[in-house]
Amino acid sequence: MGSADVVTETVWEIEPHTKAKHEILTRYLDAWFPILASWSERVLFIDGFAGPGSYRSGEPGSPRLALESAKGQARFLRNSNVMFLFNEADPSRFQLLEEWRTNGNGAVPSNFSVLTRNQQFVDLAGEIVERRGDKRLVPTFAFVDPFGFKGVPLALICDLVRDRRSELFILFSFNSVNRWITHEGQQGNLSELFGCSDYAQADGLGPDERKRFLADLYERQLREVGQFPYVSRFEMIEMRGRTSYFLYHCTRSLKGLEVMRSAMWKIDPTNGSQFSDRVAGIEPLFDATFTLDLDKLLIARFKGQTVPIKVLQDFVLTGTRYAPAHLKKETLKPMQERGLIECIGQKRKGTYPEGVLIHFL
C-alpha cells in the first residue's frame, strides 16, 4: 500500500497513480488466483508493506483489494488453501490493519487464512526464508510496495520468491534513489537495493539517461539474481511531471507475462508502459490502441517464413512491448488485406484460430 516517497501520516489521501497501480494489481490477481490454484493446493499472497488497509477517504488499500479479488474467484479456489500474509511495520497503521482484519473484512471463505504481522519487511522475509531452508515455498505472489528504498534487499527478496511458480510485483522508488544515489550514508542501502554497485555509474549522466540507466539496471538485476525470464515495467509519473517510481512484475510463466502485459495496456492504451497523474480522469483522444509498428516487427522477424499463430503470439509477448490481443484483429487482419501475408488453413478471412499458418511474403 506504500508510495515512492516517505509518508508520515497514519492514513493519507490516495493519489491517482496509486489508483492506477491498484487497478493493475487487481486485474492481475483476478486472473492469477485461479491459475495458481490449478497448479497447487496452496497459494500464498504476501503484502510486505500493507499500510492501514484504507485511505483517508475510505478507498481500499492493497490488502483489502487482494482479499476481495480472491473472494471474487472463490468458486475456482474452493479446493485450495488460500493464505494471505499482510505485514505493516508502523504500529499505528498496523493497529488499523488489525482492526480491519478482525472486524471489517466481511465473510471469508473457510479455506482462506488471513494473517497479519507487525515487523520490518526485511525481518519478515528473512524469517520466512530461514524457516523454509532448502524446501520449496508454496506458489507465492509477493507484493513489495515500500516507502523509499531502505530495507528492500534484492537478494533476499529474490530468495523469497525463488520457487518457479512464484511471482514478484515490486516498486522501485526511482525518485528517492535519484535524490540519494551519491550520498555517502546511503551506499549500503543502495547496494542492497540493487544487489550490486553498478548504480554508481549513474553519477554524471543527464536526467533522462540517468533514469533509463537506473531503471534498466534494476530490471537486469531482477532478471539475473531472481532468475526471472519475463519482467514487465510500468512507469508512474506524479502531478509535477517527474517520475515517482517504476513497477516491475517478475514471472517465469508466459501466461503470467500475458496477463500482466494486458493489465498494463488497459491502464495505458497508447504504450502499455506509463501513467501520469496529469491525465487522470481525462478521456483519451483516441479509442484505438496504437500498434503502428507491430506489423513491421513481424515482417522483420518472419519475412519469407511460414509459422503457426502460436509462434506469433509468443513473439509478441517476448519480443515486443505489445500484448497478444494486438496481434489478430489490429495487425494480422490489416496485413492480410494489404497482401503482406497469406494464411494457410484459414476457414474465414480475418480470423486466425489455432492451427492456422501465417506465411510472410
TrEMBL record:
Taxonomic source organism: Rhodococcus wratislaviensis
InterPro entries reported for this sequence: Tcm_partner
Protein name according to UniProt: Three-Cys-motif partner protein
